[in-house]
Amino acid sequence: MMLRESSKAFGYDVDIRAVTDPSIDPGVPHGSLLVAFSDAVLGRHDVDALRSELVEAIGDSGLLGAAGVIGNFSMMNRIADATGMPVGRGFLAATEDVRKLLGLDRFKHE
Predict the structure, then answer these.
(1) N-terminal to C-terminal alpha carbon distance within the chain
(2) Which of 21, 45, 55, 93 is 20 to 30 A away from residue 32, measured at CA?
(3) Is 42 inside any structural domain?
């Protein structure tokens, strides 16, 4: 939801499918590099090379911002999972199209 609104505010045509398909351009400046960096930080790739590439592309402050966003989302997800926080009906309704597009309902557990 926040990504949708902030992308509209900045005039970006974001393709959320890039989150699960790295062949798709996310539609934001340096988006593919940011997605790759996020994957690397989460342990899927070598982070050192991507960190250097990201600093070259968006500078030290950009790297810090990207790392902060990754850390914050990771923290929020871990807290929600650990506490068993249910997803509200309103949020489920508002995100139905994105969940369907990305195939996220397969992770649904009751």
Answers:
(1) 23
(2) 93
(3) yes
